[in-house]
UniProtKB/TrEMBL annotation:
This is Ankyrin repeat domain-containing protein. The lineage of its organism: Bacteria, Bacillati, Bacillota, Bacilli, Lactobacillales. Residues 31-65 are annotated as: Disordered. The keyword Cytoplasm does not apply. Residues 40-57 have a biased composition (Polar residues). It comes from the Bacteria. ANK repeats lie at residues 100-132. Keywords: ANK repeat, Repeat. It comes from Lactococcus petauri.
Length: 260
């Protein structure tokens, strides 16, 4: 082989070697880039999965939140449907009382919220539960003219006629004294209330309707109703006075005619 041919062959071999090295290097770079891309993609998927998992847990926690207690729901004036959910979730707390001793039913009776009162009564709310001043839903409804609530109580529960207000009176006495004729009639028609019950002052419904009021036609109608149901006109209060004695003392001629 000639010297010139040897030189040419060497150059060829050197160039071939360089080409091989470059080819191998590019291949390694492509593989590394591909691997890095896979790692990035895997990391992105993992992050997304974690975020989704976190959202699912948060949603799950929200779904697990229990409805508030009945007393809390009533106090915060939640809607009828929300209070119904509270009752279903916390049936045993339906008669829970606040710092004033007021039950959910007494609170809604104060507000004359008939729909809520009916819902609570239907779910077993105690109509005799008394607050710190001895008001109960039954006694308060009768005394304060919450006629529809009183009607529902009489129709759907059993008021305890031995539970008295802070003056020792039953439901009938303040109903008569405050002029709630329809409540008086309702209680008498129900037949369970003691028409002649005397409170701590010895007053009956009849005595209070005369002695503590104005002798007007409206109160004459209440007295007439009590007499129709055989109220005892001979009973005397702690001052030893009857309803007729008061009518005479106050000069209520219409009352005198009814009671004589």
């Amino acid at each position: 082989m000639k010297r010139e041919d040897v030189v040419v062959l060497r150059k060829y071999l050197i160039l071939s070697g360089l080409a091989f090295v470059l080819l191998v290097g590019c291949s390694k770079q492509d593989n590394q880039s591909s691997h890095e891309g896979e790692v990035k993609q895997s990391t992105t998927i993992s992050t997304s999965q974690k975020a989704a998992s976190t959202n699912e847990k948060a949603t799950s926690k929200k779904e697990e939140v229990k409805p508030m207690k009945v007393l809390e729901a009533v106090t915060e004036k939640k809607s009828l449907s929300e209070i119904e959910k509270s009752i279903k979730a916390n049936q045993s707390d339906i008669n829970e009382r606040n710092a004033q001793g007021e039950s959910p039913l007494l609170i809604v009776t104060h507000e004359n919220n008939i729909a809520l009162a009916q819902l609570l009564i239907d779910n077993g709310a105690d109509v005799n539960s008394q607050d710190h001043i001895q008001d109960s839903p039954y006694l308060y409804a009768a005394a304060q003219g919450k006629t529809e609530i009183l009607r529902y109580i009489l129709q759907h529960s059993k008021p305890n006629q031995k539970v008295y207000n802070r003056f020792g009176g039953n439901a009938l006495i303040p109903a008569a004294e405050k002029g709630h004729l329809e409540n008086v009639k309702m209680l008498l028609e129900d037949g369970q209330v003691d028409i002649d019950h005397q409170n701590n002052y010895g007053y009956t419904a009849l005595i209070e309707a005369v002695a503590l009021r104005d002798g007007s036609a409206h109160y004459q109608e209440i007295v007439k109703t009590l007499l129709q149901y055989k109220a005892n006109t001979e009973l005397r209060d702690n001052n030893n006075l009857t309803a007729l004695d008061y009518a005479k003392h106050l000069g209520y001629s219409g009352m005198i005619n009814l009671l004589s």
